[in-house]
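retry 2 of 3: previous attempt timed out while embedding 2-acetamido-2-deoxy-beta-D-glucopyranose. Reduced batch size to 1 and resubmitted. Inputs unchanged:
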Amino acid sequence: MYVLVLRVVFSLMCVHVTRSVSCPAGCECSEAAQTVKCVSKDLQDIPTGIPTYTRNLFITGNHIRRIGPECFKGLDNVITLSLSGNRISEVESRTFSSFLNLRSLDLSSNQLQVIHAEAFVMHNHTLKELNFSRALYNHSSVTNLAVALQWSSLDSLLSLDLSSNGLIVLPPHIFLHMSNLRRLQLTNNSIVSVSNESLLGLEHLEELDLSHNALKTFSAGGLMELERIPKAKLHLGQNPYTCNCGIEQFIMLLNTLQDRIVDAELLVCVYPVEFRNFSLLLARKLVLECHHVPESSNMALQTSYVFLGIVLGFVGLMFLFVLYLNRNGIKKRIYEMRDTCREMWEGYHYRYEMDSDPRLSQLSKSADV
Ligand SMILES: *[C@@H]1O[C@H](CO)[C@@H](O)[C@H](O)[C@H]1NC(C)=O
Ligand SMILES: *[C@@H]1O[C@H](CO)[C@@H](O)[C@H](O)[C@H]1NC(C)=O
Ligand SMILES: *[C@@H]1O[C@H](CO)[C@@H](O)[C@H](O)[C@H]1NC(C)=O
Ligand SMILES: *[C@@H]1O[C@H](CO)[C@@H](O)[C@H](O)[C@H]1NC(C)=O
Ligand SMILES: *[C@@H]1O[C@H](CO)[C@@H](O)[C@H](O)[C@H]1NC(C)=O
Ligand SMILES: *[C@@H]1O[C@H](CO)[C@@H](O)[C@H](O)[C@H]1NC(C)=O
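retry 2 succeeded.
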């Protein structure tokens, strides 16, 4: 009941009884340019009495909190609508459905929180540009926005700006029905990874800006997403790339994508500190040390080598210790060995001398006889 009353009051505020030819208070109207501007006038609502000739409508820098379909009734001709810099937190169902030729909608710098699933449903598929830069109240609002974008038929959209919204992840399928989108701005968010199926439906994308985010690397799933947009130029700089084995696949891909990356010189390692400012495109050598062995098994191998070394060292020590304990016996043994050797040698020497002296051998022969 309360909601209903609010709605009625709200409708009364938005819809004028008769649209006058004159200009609403706080606005500047130019019939020649078919343009109406209501800029920074502390307006709390969309003003009433906007002339029907209006093609370009700028209601910016005011304090509007909520917009619904009643606000724009009769404004069939609007092509460009900017509601930038207000405090819009709620967009009702089919708010823009009265526009028959809307091509550009700017909702940047607002505080969108409650976004009806059918908020952007329009009759004709005419919308080409949609600007949500700095438009969300917080990153949780992207869930509502994703639903609304999927429900609206935005297959004519060419450009979508979602920059500066503190986004952490992109919900899967958020761009599913934007098969004609050419330019997607996601710069200056906090996106930590490009997740599975988040770029699904963007096969005609020509430019993707992911610079100034929180990407440390691209996972296998993220790399698959990049493969979904084979024609797109990529902005990937100003991310805290972490140069460990986990980034190897991304670097391999970079080398094949090089001509598609607009800001290749800005792709540098940020962590670990010893690789800071090291170009990702030149980092191949650095990561090839991974030898394609997963980090965990590599570690296991290293620890097993260390363990083997310790065991061998211990055995060696034991051996030396045993030798030390037996040192007297060994000494005796060595002396004995030396004595036997000496005796043998002397015996041999003696016999040799006997053999080499002919007289002695004669003597021995005659003695034999
Ligand atoms: C837009 O849709 C209306 C009906 O909703 C139709 O009369 C009009 O011709 C359409 N305009 C264009 C440009 O398709
Ligand atoms: C969106 O709006 C912001 C702020 O008004 C502006 O800086 C940016 O250029 C707009 N984006 C596009 C794609 O026009
Ligand atoms: C976003 O705003 C809503 C409404 O105030 C709040 O409930 C939610 O906790 C906020 N989310 C974050 C991540 O701050
Ligand atoms: C980046 O986004 C934050 C809000 O998330 C904003 O305050 C800041 O001005 C933005 N920076 C640029 C350069 O647009
Ligand atoms: C992510 O991708 C994997 C295959 O790589 C698939 O099995 C999984 O279902 C996907 N998850 C989502 C949420 O789409
Ligand atoms: C990295 O490079 C930038 C400019 O190229 C420089 O300002 C910065 O001091 C460098 N940082 C380190 C740790 O070398």
